[in-house]
Write a structure and sequence with these properties.
- It contains 10 helices and 4 strands.
- With 206 residues, the protein is mostly helical.
- Helix 2 packs across helix 7.
- 56% of the residues lie in helices and 12% in strands.
- Strands 1-2 form a two-stranded antiparallel sheet. The chain has a two-stranded parallel ribbon with strand order 3-4.
- Strand 3, helix 5 and strand 4 form a beta-alpha-beta unit.
- It is globular and about 60 Å long.
Length: 206
């Protein structure tokens, strides 16, 4: 809800995947920040990759014209596939119906011979997908720290479950700073809920 959404893809030969596993490459959520940073260096050395950050402003603008997050992710993932042009792509599926997600992505992919497989928990089951998740997570965290330097405040993880992030969002509701608001995903329910509560409190105080 704060900062960029980052999508990444990693391309390797199938026989190299076991080497990734030996390095300790896995789902980024199972690694510490220090472990992710170290593996990031190994991954970029051993693979072809693409990383696409999506700003909070783009997420909100796309949402206004009916492009929800799933569709936006499909478009960006297809951009990565088009850039890397793999024979086969395995995707960690954010959609409840993987087959539907596969069809959506395929509609944006130029090479129709590319085999597209979307699976739940693919970042856990396939080291190469875990590698992509590490590239995305490290990039997102680095960019969030850069935003903190610009704003001069701590933002926490940027996710809705983080109390520090929630506090930033709560304070932002009554703050018209354009510099702060350009990093907030206003189309997300978390921000809308905080805004609604602030408005209700204001009415009650009145």
């Amino acid at each position: 809800m704060l900062g960029d959404l980052v999508v990444a893809g990693c391309l390797i030969a199938e026989e190299k995947e076991s080497g990734f596993k030996e390095l300790g490459v896995k789902d980024s959520k199972l690694l510490t920040p220090k472990e992710r940073e170290k593996l990031y260096v190994d991954i970029v050395k051993e693979s072809k990759y693409e990383i696409i950050p999506i700003s909070a402003e783009e997420i909100d603008e796309r949402n206004k014209v009916g492009c929800n997050l799933n569709k936006l992710e499909c478009i960006k993932m297809a951009q990565i596939i088009n850039a890397l042009n793999p024979d086969k792509v395995i995707i960690d599926c954010p959609h409840p119906i993987p087959e539907k997600f596969e069809r959506e992505i395929a509609s944006y992919v130029v090479n129709k011979k590319t085999k597209i497989v979307a699976e739940h928990k693919a970042d856990f089951n396939y080291p190469v997908v875990g590698a992509a998740s590490i590239l995305a997570k490290v990039t997102r965290d680095r960019r969030l720290r850069d935003i903190e330097k610009v704003l001069g405040i701590e933002l926490g993880s940027g996710y809705p479950h983080d109390p520090k992030t929630r506090e930033v969002i709560k304070n932002a509701v009554g703050n018209n700073s354009k510099e702060l608001h350009k990093y907030i995903r206003h189309s997300w329910s978390t921000y809308k809920d905080e805004k609604k509560m602030a408005e209700q409190k204001k009415m009650a105080d009145f």
